[in-house]
Structure formats: C-alpha cells, structure tokens
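Dear support,

Our group has been running a series of protein-ligand predictions, and this particular one with iron/sulfur cluster is the one our PI (initials K.S.) wants archived with full inputs and outputs. We had some confusion internally about which version of the output was final, so please treat the block below as the authoritative record. The input we submitted was:
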Amino acid sequence: MHTLDIIRIVASLLVIIVGGAIGARRMWFLFRLLRVAKPMPERWGGWGKKLRYQLRHVVAQEKILQWTGVGILHAFIFWGFMIAQSQSLEAIGEVFDPDFHIPLIGRWEILGFTQDLFSVLIMVAIIGFAIVRFAQSPRIRGKQSRFAGSYLSHGWYVLLLEFALLYTVLVLRGVRVAHGTLPYERGAFLSRWIGENVFAGMGEFQLDLVGTVFLVAHIAVIFGFLIFTVYSKHLHIFTIFPNVLFARLPKALGPLESEKIDVENMSEDDVLGVGQIEHFGFKRFLDMYTCTECGRCQSQCPAWNTGKPLSPKLVIMDLRDHLYAKGPYMLDPSLAEANGSNGHENIDVLNMKLVGDAPGEESVIDFDVLWSCTTCGACVEECPVDIEHVDHIMDMRRYKVQMESSFPTEAGGMLRNIENSGDPWGLGQSKRMEWAEGLDVPVVNGTIPDDVEYLFWVGCAGALEDRSKKVTRTVAELLNKAGVKYVVLGQGESCNGDPARRLGMEYVFQMMAQANIELLNSIGAKKIVTWCPHCFNTIKNEYPAFGGTFEVVHHTQLLTKLVQEGRLTPQTAIDKKVTYHDPCYLGRHNEVYDPPRAVVDAVAGLEKVEMPRCRNHGFCCGAGGARFYMEETIGKRVNHERIDEALELEPDLVSTACPFCFVMLDDAVSDKVGSGALAEGTTKVVDVSQILAESLLPLASINGDGDHKSVNVAAGAATGPGSPPADGPDEGSHAERAGQP
Ligand code: SF4
Ligand code: SF4
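Confirmed final output from the archive:
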C-alpha cells in the first residue's frame, strides 16, 4: 500500500467518523426534542393517500413548481442531488478501492450519463439561484424582498457547498477517466471531457496526488455539508419527508383542528392552546425544523405587504430559534439550575413569554404580530414544504384568549355579542328577518318538508349588515325566480361561531357549533346554501368534527347550476368592465374559483379583467381572522391595498362573493372617493349575484338608478342606500363594526 493510499484512507475515515458523530449527535437532539411535543393522533393513518401526496409534493416537486422559474431550478437541484448520492457513494467506495463501482447498476452507461447531465443542471441551478439571491437581496429591495429577515449568509453557504460538492466530484471523475478506472464510457460525457482535456498527459503520481486531495476534500465537503444542514435551514432536505407525510390532507390549508373542550372535567393543569413552545404538537415542531426561509409565504402575506410586523416566515423562524434555544432545558430540566447558578446567557429563554400582552413587550412573538393575521391562508398555500402557519397562530391565539384574556380589546365586544345575542353586533334574533320584508321567503317551522331542497343559511352579515342585506335579498329573489324550494331559519339562526374561533375563543365556537348542529339535525337539514364563505367553510368543513355533516354549497355554485340548467337565463347585456375579488375562505380555503366567474360569464356584454393577484394567489380584503372586528392602525389598510390593485384595471364593477369582502372593498372605495382619489360613481362594489340579477331584471344595486322594486324595498327596509346605519353596522371604523361604543 502506497503512502498516498494510507493518507487517503486515514484522512477520509477521520472525516467520516468525526463528521458523522457531530451530525448524528445533532440529529439525536432534534429527534428527542420532537418527542417532547404533543402527540397529534389525528395526523396518523391514511398512509396510502399520504404516500401519493408525498410523491406529488416532494418527488414530483408539484408545489414548488407553482413558481415556475425558481421551481424548475429547485427541481434541478432536488433531482440532481438525488442522483449525486450515487456519485458520493462511488467516491466513498473509491477510498478503499480505486476501481470501485456500485454493485449491479454501477456500470450502466445511462447512470453515468444521468450523473453528468444533472451535474450540468445543478450548475445551471446554482448560477440561477445566485442571480435570484442578488436580484432579491433585501439590500436592494428592502422589506419587499422575500429574503428580508432570513439568515442571508446561510443561503450563500448552501450554494457554495453545492458548488464545492460538484467541483470536487467532477475533478475526481476526471482523474478516474485519466486513470482508466471510471466505470462508464461515453455515457459520462462531462467526466470524460474533463479527463481527456484537463488531466490528459499528467503523470501517475500527479494523478494520484490530485485524486487523493480531491477525494478527501469531497468527503470533507459531504460531511461539512451534513453538519451545516442539521444546524441550519437546510435541515429541510431531511425533514420535508416527514413534514409532508404528516401534513393536513387533502391539503395543508384546511379546517382548524382542536380537542373538544369539556369545562366540567377540566383540571387545573389543563392548558387551552399554546402558551409555551413545548405545548405545540409535533407537526408544528416539524414545521419549525423544515422552514427553508425562502420567503414565499412572506411575499404573499397581506399583513407584511401592508407594513404590519407580521411575516409568516419570521413567525416560524422565531419559534424555531426559541425552540432550539430552549430545547436543551426541555430535555434536561436540571440544566436550568446548573446554568442558572453560573449565569448561563441563554437562561432567559425559560422565562420569556411566547406572546406579548402589548406591542413591543419582550416575547418570542410580538402582540401585533399575532393579531395582524387575517388567517387568509396565503402563506400555507405558497409554502413549498407544507408548513401550516395558520395553525401555529391559532394555537397561540387560543392560549392568549382563553387562558389569559389577552387580545385586542375592541374584539371583546364581538365575543360578548356572540355569546349574549348570537351575532357579532349584538342586534339580536328579532332583527334577523328584516332583510326579507316584502319578499316571499319561507321560514322553517318544525322539520324541513321533503319537497324543500335547500336550507338557505343567511349568516349574521347577510341578515344584519345593511349593505349585505341587499345581496341577501338578491339571492332570495334569484332563488324564487328559479323556482328553488328553500327555507330559512329566520329568527332561529345564530352565528356559526367562526369569528370567535378565528379570534381564538374556541370554547365559544364549540358552544355555537354544538347548538347549531343540534338545531340543524333536529329540523332534518341536509342541503345548505350559504352566501357567506365563512359560514360555508365552517358548516361544510368544521362542523363535521362536532357531529354536523351536511351538503353545503355556496350561492355562486348554486347560481351557476341554475344557469346551466336553464332555470335562470340572463337577458340583458351589461356593457361594463368587471373584475372579481376571490374571498379567501371561498377561494384558497375551499378552492371555489370557477363558479363565481361562471356566474359573471353567463352575462353578455361584460368585459372581464383579472387582477394580478387572483385565484389561489388572491389577496385578502383584510377582514378574516376576526380582523373585521379589530382596529387596523399599523401600515396601509389591507382593503385599500386590494382596491388599489383593482382600480389599476379601471373597472366599473369590482365583484366579489362574500359579505365581509363586500363591506371591506366598499369601504375602501368610499375612502378613495372621500379622499378625492376616485370620482364618485366610477367604480361600484357588487356581489356576483347582483350582476346576474341585473341581467335578469335591472337592479338599482348595480346601476344606481333606484328604479327596481326589490332594491328600493331592501334599502328602505333598513336605512336606505348610502345612509348611516340606523341600528346596525355599516360604514365606519372597525370598532363601530364590532359594536363598540
Ligand atoms: S394567514 Fe394570511 S395574514 Fe396570516 S400570516 Fe398567513 S398570509 Fe399572513
Ligand atoms: S414557511 Fe414555507 S414559504 Fe415561508 S419561508 Fe418557510 S419554507 Fe418558505
């Protein structure tokens, strides 16, 4: 055995043993930490579906390819490094045997070709990502950069290490070509070219020397990369597999989960929500491990994009950093005492609040960060590794609200009103049918008759908010015109509980849900039509966990069906330009994108234009997550940002399909008119049902001439168009909407 052989073997083994030990120690720490988290039994099982999902999302890179350019670059890296494992295996084998090849497949020309092809593609991807990182640098783009707040150096280290891996392996392969020991012939085109052009004519000793240096260097880079990976955001290359495996199905964004709250049998030690990092479930820990700091979530977040302190990426990163800092103490509580006595600098992690009670208070997550979220789901939709940010935020809100009564005070009125009066404004049951005055709207009495197809769930906004009441009338008129047999609950209807749940008051939500489900089951409700996407989402997706399983459709789905069946036939062409705003809880949360557009498509004459942020990339109106009932004092108002985007298109109509979006966008238009930025009457906010109705019978709600009986009646029933609210919420501040004095 030559000296170089001995050096190669000893140095390589040393790197493998030391590097492997450091990597394994860290992985053991991460694994033990995971076991401290709460078990989430609901995430186990259904392995067949999970496996198919894994193949689509991880192996086929489906979600990451949503962003085509960087998606393709990432796919080159992902698939490339899968293939590159075989090259590293060959390198490790070469330490002991210069003629080493992988058993069975190690001489296939196709393998040699694929290895070299992906070497080229990885190099293209590294250059591409370097350009992206320069172009997207926070130094150039400030907060608009999706990398703002990420550990920037880590991204560069990854590219550097990837380049080093590639460079060292290509040199090694070139040397093997020159030695005549590479197990592939022409297939390994790049290696062969390097061997024949760079190392041709080099003496045996020089080749051995270069080979030994680069072999040890390659193994050092592999293990250096391993250590860097388990201590950095690059950990996702391992944790993406379990993280996607335990993601919510059929997709990461979906119904909120919670244990049923049984106050009768609660003990002093029971905790509702998450007040300490260790209260989180294991999927949340996996989320923290897996964040790649890519900032896709941040780039789409309405809060971040309007100057609020909330970035979904930074929430996950801050939780992760806190988890890693507190982790050793969670695994070994005796450490706290030992470190406390010797003044360990990290000891504060044990006493630090997870969420502050006031803006700026020292905590892992700032008060304003937690309460800026609209639960729009854009972050979850964008995240390529299925991190469920909304669940993290809801877990923390549940603790603050239920265990500490700490939340924006103006939302308290909404909670009290729901508990006491069954609606967020405290207007009470007696006003719930005022919207229907003068209309033939049947109210259920006893059980729903067999010949009645739908229960029309009106919703609190639809029944009580002045502008929304007009839409409710329009929907009822359209159902009447189409001959749909339906009933409403009338004064028997209550809030579905969504605003309380999204604020974090799970207990009130569960109370409302149970009462509503009992009522719906007792009257034999089977098919429900709603026009509020929040009612739609809650009854359809969240009531089943409490024993309420109903077939729920949104009014846009029903109207589309009625048009298709010829039961509603638009008559008049409307010569207007219209754009459509996707409500988050209809679109992203439920993937109902086409029916509202189909309702508009059914009407002739309209010029339809899409906003840049539409469908699953739609931008929130600012009302979700109980934000409708809170003040918005930081940054630009979300509804202003959205209406600005719509107004860029110079539309006559901004259509939507949600009472809350309707009010938010209408408020934004009024603000624009008030500030002189928009001429009065230029742009009108409408529900898509009103466009359909306009084509069937011209309605004042769209053309503003007030000559249609139904609209005059609707307006007159409450306050009249444009007048201030008589006894309910209408235009005004968020506090007014919340029923605050
Ligand atoms: S749910 Fe929406 S508002 Fe909340 S963090 Fe995600 S993107 Fe931002
Ligand atoms: S949470 Fe997801 S989208 Fe956001 S930075 Fe992390 S990996 Fe990227």
